[in-house]
């Protein structure tokens, strides 16, 4: 015998369980992915020290243009503040998915893509956009845009190879150099001469670039990921990678089963 209104009550209960359950975060971790590439330790360390790794991990669809340690010297020589460094690296994170195959089938041979620098709201005007173009011989180039057009003074950064592809979630592509952008490197109004002098992040600390507060922030932002990088990519990926969201989904499953049982009892 069913109680009056039991079905309605059970339905409402089920809807509450589903609607109040927290949204599952993106199932990837950029530092765990790059841990398998020891030649990209400096680039990975910069992502962590500037907090950009967290921004990348919060996105469900993203493409990271990564650079090897051998190509990091020009960035070290720029002596950028932490904020400017964050902007430069943000320019290398496309807010869309591009893997090797997609690079070679661009409509009309080119595409203009927004980056995390543009999405942050810190980029002036249309700065923070990147043009991808396939050139003669199948070479793919990336060039930053300034004021609605590509920067004719900026050299093209060429695609080297694919590092990691998880369609259509995250793609990590190796490029041969870091892009240069006056808009990204420009000091903000909050920067002071003492801050510029103290934040030669790339050259002072190697894989832990950043001023003292940037280095202090790194553990709190990504926990034990630095240790994961030292131990190799395998353990890091298991702890922080695609299976990171499993406990949340298991709890959700138990809650769902409980709701079903309540419905059966009441109905």
From TrEMBL:
<protein>
    <submittedName>
        <fullName>Uncharacterized protein</fullName>
    </submittedName>
</protein>
